[in-house]
Amino acid sequence: MSKRFLQIFIVCIAVFAFASVSMAQSTYEVNIYGASAQYLFWHDMADDYLVNVQGCPIANISQAETSDGKHGITRGTNCGTNGDTWHIRYSSMASFDGIYACKGQVPPAEVGGQPTCSSVGPQYRSMADPNKVTFGSSANNPSTSLSCYLVDIGASDVAGDTFGQISHGQKKGHLGGGWVDRNVQAIDTTGMTYARPVVVPFGFFANTSLDPNVVTNLTRLQAVLIYSVNALTWDQFGTSYPAKDIIACLRHAGSGTHATLDAVIMRNDTWPLATYEDAGYVWFNDGSSDMMRCVDQNGGNSADSAAAIGYADADQLVGSSYANVYALDYQGASPSKSNITNGVYDFWSTQWCYNCTSNSAFNSLMSYASNPANLPASKAAYWATANEMKVEKTNDRAYPKFI
Asked: CB within 8 A of 290, min separation 6: which ones?
């Protein structure tokens, strides 16, 4: 073999090897963990993002959720020019643990047990495993469908310094789940990188035993009296209300929804938030789905004698997922996108998405979520992007002001 031919042969092999590497299929992961109020949002956003940004064919998109409504995964295959595979996971626990996972810390406020993945590493949490779930189904995906994954994005509904709540009660309210004691104080997020693409809308929900034809609105004073356990029966508010016990369904401390209730509704006034479970009137719940089940099942009480009330992200699927629940207006206004962006409705927060691992998809995912045109149709009536807002809050406790 001549020297020149040998050189050409080597160059050809090098080019072929480079082409093989550049065309190799890859698997990409984005793991979002934390705020349960953002769970439904990312579940609806993930498939659109994979189709429109990562070039996954619509026919190759599949989703799965666990039966408890806390863990979801969206898979895209044959994506882009290389035929890559994408997994976007989203798991809801509570906002505080989204921040702690991102910081690579085990939350000190979690009494009675550590996150199941702490032995793997402090930045790992249980999330949906594509090799264990049945895609297109939720009923067939129990908690054993999870594995430990590195958290890429820590999701919180509030700033770290907005925490400062305490709760003592069952993990899943009237359904039990084991006793939980939480004292979640302000979390230092100094130096953490983040994006704040959208505004999280919150609302109040009641069991239909309260009567959606009669009771359609909740005032701030009523909310304060209920969630400080100063009001125990609905007819204390007048004869137009039913003579039934008030069942107050709350989230546990560490929830961004709960912290927003404290910051926006209770506002450190004379009557503070309840901190202890009372099986007759008060139930704490670990996630938004647990909260909504508490309202839907009336806290385990008869509809003849009691009516439950709770609070969660405003786009909850009442009527379909929760047949015995209806949405209440607050202060005479609904939690619509228009009312939130224009300063009519103030029970909302701007999300925090912390970049934990410098995941290569972080910027494109946040940019996609920031575009109003990309809001999923099922969310557009409630959720707004931050750049659509005509009002702003200087912090989670501040009243909105026009920009």
From this structure: 171, 172, 173, 175
Residue 84 clears pLDDT 80, i.e. is over it: yes
pTM score above 0.70: yes
Which of 290, 284, 287 shows the shortest CA–CA distance to 256?
287
CA 199 to chain centre: 12
Alpha carbon distances (Å) from 148 to 90, 95, 126: 13, 19, 5
Render pLDDT for 103-129 as a digit per residue (tens, 0 to 9).
998 887 554 455 678 889 999 999 999
CB 171 within 8 A of CB 273: no
Kindly report, residue by residue over 183-230, the tens digit of the pLDDT: 999 999 999 999 999 999 999 999 999 999 999 999 999 999 999 999
The Cα 277–Cα 183 span in angstroms is 14
- Residue 306 tokens read as 């009691």
Cα separation, 113 vs 141, in Å, equals: 24
CA distance 327 to 333: 11
- What is the Cα–Cα distance from 66 to 73, expressed in whole angstroms? 9
Report in angstroms the alpha-carbon separations of 313 from 87, 261, 378.
Answer: 25, 11, 13
- Map out the domains of the chain as residue ranges: 27-157+351-370, 201-341
What is the rounded distance in angstroms from the CA atom of residue 296 to the CA atom of residue 173?
A: 12
Question: Residue 79 is inside which H or E element, if any?
Answer: strand 71-79
Tokens standing for residue 350: 């701007």
Q: Which architecture, in CATH terms, is 201-341?
A: 3-Layer(aba) Sandwich (3.40)
C-alpha–C-alpha distance, residues 252 and 175, integer Å: 14
Q: What are phi and psi for residue 401, nearest 5 degrees? A: -135, 155
